[in-house]
Amino acid sequence: MHSLKIRFFDPVEIFGDDFAEAKARGDISAAVTADIGLGAEPPRDERGRPLGGKLVHLGRDTPFGLVLRSNFWLGQGLPLSAEELEEEMPMQMGLSLMQHSYQEWFYLMRFLPAVYIADRRDDKPAPVAW
C-alpha cells in the first residue's frame, strides 16, 4: 500500500490543439490526465502540483464499447538519478500499479454500462438481450 496524492488536469495541457482535433476525428472519446505524488506529503512543483508521476487514460468509442489505454510515468519530475529512482520506485511498484489499474477498470466495466443506459433512458432505448 502506498499513500498517493492525485491532481487531475485538462488533457489539453499535455496534448494541446491535437486533443480537440483527435476528438473531432473520433480517435479519442475520453481522457483522464493527472499528476501523481507518492507519500503523505509528496514534493510539489511551483504550482503546488504533486511530483512523482503522471497518468493518462485515453478512451476511444468502438462498435463494441470503449477501448481504454492507460499510461503511467513513475518518477516523473523527481530530481533523482536513475539509480535513486530505481530504489525509490522499484519495478514491483509499477507492476502493482498496473494490476491496481486493471482491477479498477475491470470493476467499473461491470456497472458503468448500466449507469449509461439508465442515464439516457428517455432519449435512447435500452438494448435488448436477444
How does this model look, in words?
This protein is an alpha+beta fold and 130 residues long. It has one domain. The chain is built from 4 helices and 4 strands; from the N terminus they run E-H-H-E-E-E-H-H. It has a 4-stranded antiparallel beta sheet, with no helix packed on it. Strand 3 and strand 4 form a beta hairpin. It is elongated and about 55 Å long. It starts with a strand and ends in an 11-residue tail after the last helix.
How many distinct folded domains?
A: 1
* Amino- and carboxy-terminal Cα gap: 44 Å
Rg calc: 18 Å
Assign an overall shape. Answer: elongated
Number of strands: 4
Q: Strands of the largest sheet, in order across it?
A: 1-2-3-4
Q: What portion of residues is helical?
A: 25-40%
Model regions low in confidence, pLDDT < 50 over at least 5 residues? none
* Broad structural category: alpha+beta
Q: What is the H-and-E element order?
A: EHHEEEHH
- On the 0 to 100 scale, the average pLDDT is 90
Tally of contiguous helical segments: 4
Summarize the biggest pleated sheet: 4 strands, antiparallel
